[in-house]
Design goal:
7 helices, 13 strands, CNF1/YfiH-like putative cysteine hydrolases, alpha+beta, single chain, 230 residues, five-stranded mixed beta sheet, six-stranded mixed beta sheet
Amino acid sequence: MAAEFLDAPELSGFRHAFSLRDVPAARLAAHLGVAANGLREAKQVHGAAVVTARLEPVPEGTEADALVTAVAGVAVAIKVADCVPLVARSDTGAVAAIHAGWRGFVAGVIPNALAELGRVSGSDRVATWTVVIGPHIGSCCFEVGADVAETIAAASDHRDGVVVPQAGGKNPHVDLDLAVRVHLARAGIAAENVTRLEGCTRCDAERFHSYRRDGANAGRHRIAAVASAR
């Protein structure tokens, strides 16, 4: 049977998963050990708002691109089809799920989510927190205009490597993984506590949906994490 999920098995005690092509939300929930309707999600708008999830569902229509919770057994999730998906876990067991498209990245969704994770978890030991970066569009495929590339580079204070020039006057590419790692490091996350689930969503049509490749016909993946008691 083909794999339906990706995770970092070495991170024992951190229940998380990234769903591959066409895996229903209920199956992801079951894989994580929560009720079929137990994933807490919000309406994603490529912004920087963060919602704190509790036992009850997030109100319908709530707009946010990151969710956090410190309630043991509650799962937070976001959907992607090229954007960078992240889940983070504090040393106290609280978790965050973050949708970081380039617009949300520039707006500050990652630092906003980590700040809220610190608030709900009651932990300031950020260097000990764990982050998993899910599959997303790679620098091999993420072609953008020069203005967008410079905007992303400016938001990361790290132009070298984030912007990948192309020969022949072609538009530059952007390394979103590196840009995201810059924000994680700036927030205090130790580099050795960041794990990447490999794969370019645009390159690998067998496993991944991609908006860049498939346009409006693209499906969506979910990445989710479950809070635990500590």
